[in-house]
Design goal:
This is AB hydrolase-1 domain-containing protein. This protein is α/β, with parallel strands linked by helices. It is built from 14 helices and 8 strands.
């Protein structure tokens, strides 16, 4: 299997305390529309392709790598996930767009990336000043805040229940996460192994209808057969090449304090729409979570697409258009 996948130049922002934030960007850096997209589990910030609608809107697309993943430093000890996230993202936005007047920001994320996306959507403006510029949010295959969504575990598969559900919090010393990292390390220490793993867990589970959507999407985006799987595998390997800290704290972030409750957001926060994209065939982020979120956010809009965990990827162009027009 080839490993010569072109990678958009990864950039680095120095942060206080000797930390750094890795990110990738594409589009117009002088645009008045900024899209910030957060990757999911075993991912890094990538910006190799921009959907046609976003090109037409002349956006600046930025994909940060979350703390503890890839080349981004782990968060400082003693700082909660949502506070560290707001601080790092504020630094990145201030660096790229120091002039906020007239700037519209769209926050988005996929799978685990919907957790930081929602945290920023609901963050207080004191904690995340750029929140006043947020025009909307999109969550693809979203997770709900387990601390508030009391029935979240009912819709989870057994592997996910164990990995990020209640057992991840009840068993001390992060034992499940440590065992998980040991079990997974040998599956993603080379691009070839990582590609085989991502094929097994995601792509091979598509039904014929979703495979047809995938093929159509490949044609529209100019990707050759196998390229997407190799890109996913390479990013998966890169995500844990230097540290497993991001993986170790993922369950704690989902189960912990998000800094707000969706039902308690004020009018200014609720003025911004949040588009929640789900699929009934998604076993990793069950659609019950998206439905709970849609009922909890006063300006929540739920959209269902056919397929599994990756289904939203094949509809992103129309989803961006829907978000911008809400």
């Amino acid at each position: 299997m080839a490993t010569d996948i072109p990678i958009a130049e990864e950039k680095y922002l120095d942060l206080p305390g000797g930390r750094r934030l890795a990110y990738a960007e594409i589009g117009n850096p002088s645009s008045s529309i900024l899209v910030v997209f957060f990757h999911g589990a075993f991912g890094v910030g990538t910006a190799n392709y921009l959907q046609k609608y976003l090109v037409e809107k002349d956006v600046h697309f930025v994909a940060p790598t979350l703390a503890g993943w890839g080349k981004s430093s782990p968060r400082s000890k003693g700082t909660s996930f949502h506070v560290a996230l707001a601080s790092d993202t504020t630094a990145l936005i201030d660096h790229l767009h120091p002039e906020k007047e007239g700037l519209k920001i769209y926050i988005a994320g996929g799978s685990f990336g919907t957790v930081p996306a929602q945290m920023l959507y609901g963050a207080s403006f004191e904690l995340f000043p750029a929140g006043r510029n947020v025009a909307g949010c999109m969550a693809l295959a979203p997770f709900s805040p387990f601390k508030l969504h009391k029935d979240h575990a009912k819709s989870m598969t057994v592997p996910n229940y164990i990995a990020v559900g209640p057992p991840s919090q009840y068993i001390p010393f992060n034992l499940l996460q440590r065992l998980g990292s040991v079990a997974l390390k040998h599956k993603m220490n080379t691009p070839e192994k990582a590609e085989a793993f991502v094929r097994q867990t995601l792509f091979d589970k598509m039904d014929e209808a979703e495979k047809a959507e995938f093929a159509k999407w490949r044609e529209e985006t100019g990707k050759v057969e196998g390229q997407t799987e190799r890109e996913f595998g390479l990013n998966m390997m890169r995500s844990v090449q230097d540290s497993w800290q991001g993986f170790m704290e993922m369950a704690d972030a989902i189960n912990g304090d998000w800094g707000f409750a969706p039902k308690d957001l004020d009018e200014e926060h609720n003025a911004r729409p949040i588009l929640l994209v789900t699929s009934e065939g998604d076993a990793m982020a069950p659609d019950a979570m998206a439905k709970w979120l849609a009922e909890s956010y006063k300006n929540g809009h739920c959209r269902s697409v056919k397929g599994g965990h990756l289904a939203a990827l094949f509809h992103l162009n129309e989803l961006w258009k829907e978000l911008f027009e809400l």
